[in-house]
Protein 1
Amino acid sequence: METVLSIFVGISLSAAAGFRVFVPLLVMSIAAHTGHLTLTSGFEWIGTTPALITFSIATLVEILAYYIPFVDNLLDTIATPAAVVAGVILTASTVTGLSPFLSWSLAIIAGGGVAATVQSMTGVTRLASTSTTGGVANPVVSTVELGGATLLSAFAVFLPVVAVIIVGLLLMVGISKLRRKSTAVQ
């Protein structure tokens, strides 16, 4: 059961990285630093004071940058590969009870995949917001994404079963919307 919960934590934090790259890393760092989350061997550095300070600064910069019109769209191009890397790290650092091969395979496929999917959905949403409102509504989108990253990260650490259900619903809705848009284009 511990292994399943650790997978839920990792995948949920990875999904949160699709909203904001550094928020789930900061939440993970705080949780590990305070003893609420045990990290797998080799990832203990995430819970150190220097990592906590670094993730705090990076999170603040990321949040502020997403409130600057058109910079937010530029950040989405950088955030996509960064979210995938963060998703892999977030999952790899939490999964326990599996062989290294299975842990890393899960981290790459599920962690990176979920982060990329959520990031793609947020990028499409921001692009739609920019094209329909000239960027005026983008701060609202940024606030919703920040809230999503924060809440999903907190749920991942403290209520991982709830978090993974939210991730599943989020993916179902997002994939459904992306499919409708792709069929409308054809």
Note: Helices lie at 2-19, 22-33, 49-65, 71-92, 100-133, 138-158, 160-185.
Protein 2
Amino acid sequence: MFHDRLQSICESIDGALAVSLVGKDGITVESFGDSQSLDMEALGAELLAQTQAISRDHRELAMGEVRQLSVTTELYTVLVSALVGGYSLLLVLEEKGGSYGKARFELRRAQLKLESDLV
């Protein structure tokens, strides 16, 4: 059901390697992209746990929930974008040549399109 939407997201962003829809429990619902070199299930579970920990800290500081988190390593930039119902989108960009601004824009567009399917 989500495969075509994830494919569209991945193909619309220069340097996008993979994208996943992840449930609030950290389990990947659907993925599209380079699953050969990237363990999207492990990455999704780990980054979602980190995002939830940061959200807990931000609630204590009265800053609100984390809507988007990005992590840049020497190889990749990974973006986690919150959706309704505790779901998240996880997008992996190659560090060199990845379009960070376009990725943030497309994740926001995808959020609006996917939320009606997730409610």
Note: The longest strand covers residues 16-22.
Protein 3
Amino acid sequence: MRNESKRVLFLCTGNYYRSRFAEDWFNHLAKKQGREWLAESRGLANDWLWLRNSGPMAPEAIHELEKRGAKPSVKRWPQALKAGEWRSFQRVIALNREEHKPLIAARFPELSDVTYWDIKDLGEEESASALGRLAEQVENLLRELRGQ
């Protein structure tokens, strides 16, 4: 099933908090629902940004995933988006238009088919609120993809 899966790519700045939560929550629900969709995530910022992260995944994301019964992918460190990598995905979702549209335009101008959500980063919105809204967005996406 996995090699025939359709793929979703979640993008955020550092691939540490929002996109990692979205990837793991999407995959948890898709597996539970028997869907043939698979999510991955990447970061848009330059590699130096990840030096400030205290580990492979934000503790807030780990806590929220565990609270919801999903297993966090804590063994994988943040990954940067590479040129052209998005072409193997059926859907590309950046998690904050205001923050990510300029990063995409500057680093990947040929990436034009992007859906933008409005989920703020750590320090800009309380994590329980941001991750709750993000979970709802992921659940809505899975409903939308049901027929695809």
Note: The first strand starts at residue 6 and ends at 12.
